[in-house]
Write a structure and sequence with these properties.
- The chain has four helices and no strands.
- The chain is mostly helical.
- α2 runs antiparallel to α3.
- The longest helix is centred in the middle third of the chain and has 32 residues.
- The model has no long low-confidence stretch (mean pLDDT 89).
């Protein structure tokens, strides 16, 4: 079973928290809040999204790379993770 299914409740909790932060950001923009308040909301949402990404990456690493017995499949799964890291670092 995919680790995202095993950790589904925890991941969905994070996603819902992110949704709340994005909604607060939208509200801050709608209300014409000061730049500093908007920037704080952006930073909070970005940090929460980053935390979610790290959580899923850690699960992918342990469940699909470290635990994989086939060297070929392990290499392919590692390449998927490396490609993701490259895209994330842009």
């Amino acid at each position: 079973m995919a680790h995202t299914q095993c950790d589904k409740k925890k991941l969905l909790t994070r996603v819902r928290r992110i949704a709340g932060q994005v909604a607060a950001l939208e509200q801050a923009l709608e209300n014409g809040d000061d730049c500093d308040a908007v920037l704080v909301q952006i930073a909070a949402a970005k940090g929460a999204m980053h935390g979610l990404m790290l959580e899923v990456m850690a699960g992918h690493l342990s469940g699909h790379i470290v635990a994989e017995r086939s060297p070929g499949k392990r290499a392919r799964e590692a390449e998927v993770l490396l490609d993701l890291l490259k895209r994330h670092a842009r």
